[in-house]
Amino acid sequence: MAGILTTEQIASVVLDAGVVYIDYKGIGEKILAPTRGGNEFKVEQTFKEVSVDGQRGKTKGMRRIVTEDASLKVRLMGLTQENLKLALPGADLDSTTKAITNGGGKILDADYIPSITLVVPNMAGNNKVITLYNALHDGGLTMATTDKDEVVVELVFYSHREPTDSTVSIYKMEEVTT
């Protein structure tokens, strides 16, 4: 059993919780907030079996993906008014007072985050960079306070397709050499 791991396998181990960015590498790049409890990227696919008479079970080449969605779960500690607004699409954020109020019930294009990115290092010193496009949190807001503890708000951002071009990617996973 000596030598069961390769150097490449060790180098590919992803470390720590990573950092979440809005508009990573863009003009408006910013770190979203401190997090606690890690972050979670998920791609969910729904498969359909293409069945034909005489088929006895799952058959190679006879399955297709009918839906595919991507999400990024973030556990935020930095509760700025701007971050709280991300939890409430359709709400209004007053630019002067910074007060958040319920909006008119319409989700505007401006409520979608063009890109939200999780950057996580690996043992090789490179970064795994995972980006969701047209991201929107639609799970409401729960903020629980506890004596002698900090507030952590869990937001799940879902990527959305472009309405005029369904072939545009909703997520991207890269390994970037640092």
TrEMBL record:
Superkingdom of this protein's organism: Bacteria
Name the UniProt record assigns to this protein: Uncharacterized protein
